[in-house]
Amino acid sequence: MLRWIVWRDLLLAWRRRTDILSTIFFFVIVVSLFPLGVGPEAQLLKAIAPGVVWVAALLSSMLSLSRLFANDYQDGTLEQMLLTPQPLYLIVLGKALAQWLVAELPLVVAAPFLGVQFGLSPETLVVLVLSLLLGTPILCLVGSIGAALTLGLRSGSILVAILVLPLYIPALIFGAGAVDASIMSTSPYPHLYLLGALLILSLIFAPWATAAALRISLE
Amino acid sequence: MTGPNGSGKTSLLRILCGLLSPAEGDVRWRGERISTLGDEYFSSVTYLGHRNGVKDELNGVENLRISCGLNGISVSQDEARRLMQQVGLSDRESLPARLLSEGQRKRIALARLAASKTALWLLDEITTSLDRNAIGLVRSLIQEHLSNGGIAIVATHQDLELTTVNIERLELAT
Prior knowledge:
By secondary structure, chain A is mostly helical. Helix content of chain A is 86%, strand content 0%.
């Protein structure tokens, strides 16, 4: 059944390609603005690179978050999903997976190219991609809780940001920390392990919390 | 089930399908509370509400196959086409639903109803925006469902003129 929900959301995303492209474009533009604004000083650029890329990833994942359930809520397909004999946990997990494939994976792919602008070494670029690979699913999973809680509210997208961004802080610290460690030529693995632990934690608890929030929002 | 606007028809149907929890009392299915049955209950219910549950970006066949797939019923491409034909959308099956009229989108929802194998149907204002042909289709779908031993609870303003013996009428007051 997970197959159907992922297939459905991927198909819908494909029919609305502009949404995906705008997220990627936003990420690319935000990251590229920093070298232009800060100036070409190599040492400074290297120092801010991890934070800039990670913060841009957080912000662009916020952009697509409010759409996660809102469209399905409006046309009634969400309540139909609640009434299927599948556990809601699985449906949420499927939607988060599709969201990651559509909105986050392109960012992971684009990140190393953007890292070059900051003069990052190849080893550091590998760590950057690894940290984003582990970290972006956390953003989707934790973000889905906020998206479910603010369903049907006006100005929900701003509220999502206020609710969810503080919850992103651990992922930001360890994600940017891993890249930082690699720039300082120390081992990035402690950060990556912690990021992995956060991912497992959010895989277990976030869909469950999102499912509960959805039931409340649809009453 | 009839009653003036705001008398609680929709609320009652949403309580019966488990989307809304009742302020008092409980809903039982085959003697067991639906809150304890959980997902098991949902495999015997189909709810069709005001909002059709039809995705604008998908065409009729895709809408039907995906929503059936989520309900654990696999509908093949040919079967989906046949159902689209049954609800009178055979020449519109490859158009995205956003290009269809309100009544035609409702017909896609009817195709989902026809494909469902559940025992209990909860239908909210099913005849809204449907033409006379489609209302006839609704009637025959419900008749067939009832003659197969199913139950249907229908909130409506319009008499569906069902000819089954076992009909109970519930009139809600404001």
